[in-house]
User: Fold this.
Amino acid sequence: MSFHPEPAQGVERPDSLRVLFWAFTWLALQGFGGVLAVVQRELVEKKRWLTHAQFIEDWAVAQVLPGPNVVNLSLMIGDRYFGWRGGLVALAGMLTFPLLIVLVLAGLYAGVSDVPQMQGALRGMSAVAAGMIVSTGLKMLPALKTNVLGNSWCWVLAGLTFVAIAWLRVPLIWVLAVLGGGSGLWAYRRLMALQTPRTRP
Assistant:
């Protein structure tokens, strides 16, 4: 039997598997240029299924795991509230309709892929998608103030990650292993230190 934890204070839970399916379907259909641009707004601000802190924690895990990060996130959230059935339903909502749309668009795009106007339009869309991702990152910044590593060290780690990937072109797997693994271990040790009662000499 799966254990479904009670929502955190100020957080609601989906009413049914049907609600979960259509929520992730709607989320996926908005994800032009990547679902990350809208996932935080939908799940945290509108539906309130996660707090900002929970979203950052879950997103960090989804980012590190193999596979598409948003798919990983949908599985995690579905499983959290409805067990393995919720994970499968959330996954189906995330993939079913977008898959059908992509198949149709791929057939249409094959006939116009060499048209210069179409290529220019796609380049313009990529710029918009990049802006949406940046705006999502900015919305996530306030949650870093309560991070166990401290706001200053979070900025340092974010800067090191940016430099490693954008300037030094370090492969993502090494950035995750060194910076991600190191910061995760550091945070774990600090959490354990906070939970361990201090004994007076």
